[in-house]
Amino acid sequence: MKPPFETIVTQHGPTVLRVCRVVLSPHDAEDAWSETFLAAMRAYPELPASANVEAWLVTIAHRKAIDVVRADRRRPVPVGHVPEEARGDGVAGSDDAGVWAAVANLPDKQRQAIAYHYVAGLPYAEIARILGGTADAARRAAADGMKTLRRTYPGTTPEGENR
Hints:
The protein is mostly helical.
């Protein structure tokens, strides 16, 4: 028997929010988080009891994040002046905005592979299902991203790197 949906939100909500915050801006991440759980709530009754709920939620969050990125790329943003550089990374508990800024500069697949593996703790096979492709390609994207981070931001070692 599946647990109530509220339990799913309580148990996996923080992980989904962290993933969204790494992939998107803090404001967009909260919107994507909400959209993720709205979509999940609608689909939850049909989810098999044996499903990996965390991977399922990260998959939904990934799709919602892609929707936000695509919408942002289509939306022109007129500005009267150059805005100040944003401070912080939006990742709760982080005291090092520089590393997250470096992550934000990675290509999409590398950034997403790092977020899903190092932040959400998903195995590469699950990441491959989310991003499309193979587990080896997901592993390569994460490795390439880490190589770039080590080169551009010395001392970069996200939690769980040795997984």
